[in-house]
Amino acid sequence: MKVKKAVIPAAGFGTRFLPATKVVPKELLPIVDKPTIQYIMEEVASAGIEEVILITGREKGSIEDHFDTSTELENHLRKKGRNDLLKIVQEISEMVTLVSVRQKEPLGLGHAILCAKKIVGQEPFAVLLGDDLIDAKVPCIRQMMEVYQEMEGGLLAIQKVPKPETPLYGIIKGKKVGDRVYSVEEMVEKPEPGKAPSNLAIIGRYILPPQIFDILENVQPDRRGEIQLTDGLRELRREVPIYGYEFLGDRYDAGDKLGYLQANLSFGLRHPELGPKLKKYLKNITL
């Protein structure tokens, strides 16, 4: 069944980037000259997904505004003869059909996804986390959609990480069943050092069947009162197979300060205008 809808959770407080995120949502922090979440939306649009359900929280209306039309700004650019910038602004508002759903309390990723139940309905859907920027010739979610056509159940993006970093991720235990595809046998959320079943980490891209919603409604909150998606995925695996796909591309953790800086450098070096200047600066910098 074709994946036509994507869910993008964007209700978190962004505490790791305070004080920058006190007023500005972390999703709008720029990578060079585009907000982080715009890269995610571009990935969705290039995959041919027709509708995006944005899960937002309080004071996140500026995210919706970014993807809305801006008549005043467009008129200003038109009067100034800045047709280049006008085209960019118009393309942003035409990128996707956007539906916004409020997550009234930050009760975990599982709860955020559950907020999209009525709009998604009874069809498979994609989930993209805004903290994970994936730079790839073929967008990651499109790679996953192509793999998903050959299977039923759930599909997770996975990536090999250094063993000392496994406590930072959800880790799968799996059996390789195809080119870069693993059948998931076990999932461990942030295992203790030395106890991870592998070094295959779950990265923020998923394709999930609609059964996940009923499961998430019955998942018990963790000790922090949050509904965790990993707990729901464990239950889902009892009903349908779950696979991990080792995607092609470079991933940046834009929710981490170092990862955010790395993304800016990487995208900046490839920027047609800034790239040569940045490369020259980095060559001459004294550490």
Structure described in brief:
The protein has 287 residues and is an alpha/beta fold.
Domain count: the total is 1
Biggest sheet features: 5 strands, mixed, barrel
SSE ordering: EEEHEHHHEHHEEHEEEEHHEEHH
Range of helix content: 25-40%
State the secondary-structure class: alpha/beta
- Strand order, biggest sheet? 8-11-9-10-12
- Looking at this structure, what is the CATH superfamily? Spore Coat Polysaccharide Biosynthesis Protein SpsA, Chain A
What's the level 1 CATH class?
Alpha Beta
Compute the average pLDDT: 89
Low-confidence segments: none
CATH architecture term:
Alpha-Beta Complex
Report on the structure:
This protein has one domain: Alpha-Beta Complex (Spore Coat Polysaccharide Biosynthesis Protein SpsA, Chain A). It is 33% helix and 25% strand. It has eleven helices and 13 strands. The strands form three sheets. The chain has a five-stranded mixed beta barrel. A hairpin with a 2-residue loop joins strand 2 and strand 3. 39% of the residues are buried.
Layout: helices, strands, pairs:
Blueprint: E1 5-10, E2 30-31, E3 34-35, H1 36-46, E4 51-56, H2 61-66, H3 71-79, H4 83-93, E5 97-102, H5 109-114, H6 117-120, E6 125-128, E7 132-135, H7 140-148, E8 154-160, E9 170-178, E10 181-189, E11 200-208, H8 211-218, H9 229-236, E12 242-246, E13 250-253, H10 257-269, H11 275-284
Parallel strand pairs: 1-4, 1-6, 4-5, 8-12
Antiparallel strand pairs: 2-3, 6-11, 7-13, 8-11, 9-10, 9-11, 10-12
Helix pairs in contact: 3-4, 8-9, 10-11
